[in-house]
Amino acid sequence: xxxxxxxxxxxxxxxxxxxxxxxxxxxxxxxxxxxxxxxxxxxxxxxxxxxxxxxxxxxxxxxxxxxxxxxxxxxxxxxxxxxxxxxxxxxxxxxxxxxxxxxxxxxxxxxxxxxxxxxxxxxxxxxxxxxxxxxxxxxxxxxxxxxxxxxxxxxxxxxxxxxxxxxxxxxxxxxxxxxxxxxxxxxxxxxxxxxxxxxxxxxxxxxxxxxxxxxxxxxxxxxxxxxxxxxxxxxxxxxxxxxxxxxxxxxxxxxxxxxxxxxxxxxxxxxxxxxxxxxxxxxxxxxxxxxxxxxxxxxxxxxxxxxxxxxxxxxxxxxxxxxxxxxxxxxxxxxxxxxxxxxxxxxxxxxxxxxxxxxxxx
Length: 362
Hints:
Mean pLDDT: 87
Strand order of the largest sheet: 3-12-15-14-13-16
Number of strands: 22
Order of helices and strands: HEEEEEEEHHEEEEEEEEEEEEEEE
Strand content: 35-45%
Helix content: 10-25%
Oligomer: single chain
CATH architecture of the largest domain: Beta Barrel
Largest sheet: 6 strands, antiparallel, barrel
């Protein structure tokens, strides 16, 4: 007669065979069945996006209110009637100089006129004498005609000499430098008797109109193409903030340049002093009343559309494909795929799968 195992042993063996199978119950996405993932969320909302280029700079006179009194070539300073701090009006003499080349040219032309005048007077006297003798029958006609031709040539030479003298004197105007606008002298570089090399590298003095100022900003070269005339600018100096617009953009100084100069004009008269150091934000793009979410919520893949994870009312994760727009200041515009009020998941994203249970941390 065969012996049967005890009933208690059969029950134990059955439990051993069942329990391991229960422990292996995982979902296809790797989430353990029943696991709840802690996440944080933020509501998709309507807002404004401002994409800006930031740059530092200083308050300077505007390009039309800044005059350097300079010469075109080496010269000696004869007179500087204005001192630093003096006011000037349009047309006021800022400096008188003597330019050797102009002085020599005028002297040579004056000598030329003097010689031509002497020849003309002699030819005129000779022609008058022969004209009288010819009328009296004491001179041949060919002698009188020759005298007349000589006088005509002398007159022509005298007129040419006078014209060249006038041209030389016209260049003398460059030896007197006058103010182009009303302003003040902020710097005097030379005084009477000094020699100047000429050009902006060696000015005699500088005049500005302090009521017309701009901000000279140094914009990174890789951002330069985004900056255009007329864009709004926010200018910050100490605790003061003022509005401006892009007035002009200079060309790059060379292939090695890392910045370009951008001039911003103030919208209203400014209280920021000349030479003050400022920081500015140039608004290169702005969009109002668009749907935005934190940029960290956007998931991207080379082969797949952008997407976000959304918390559903039943506390589950749902994957939503989205089309994005402008990104700025940590926010990204959602052009399609979400609605205002959707709860976008920001953290715990790496553990999520479609339909995963979530716990929203507040």
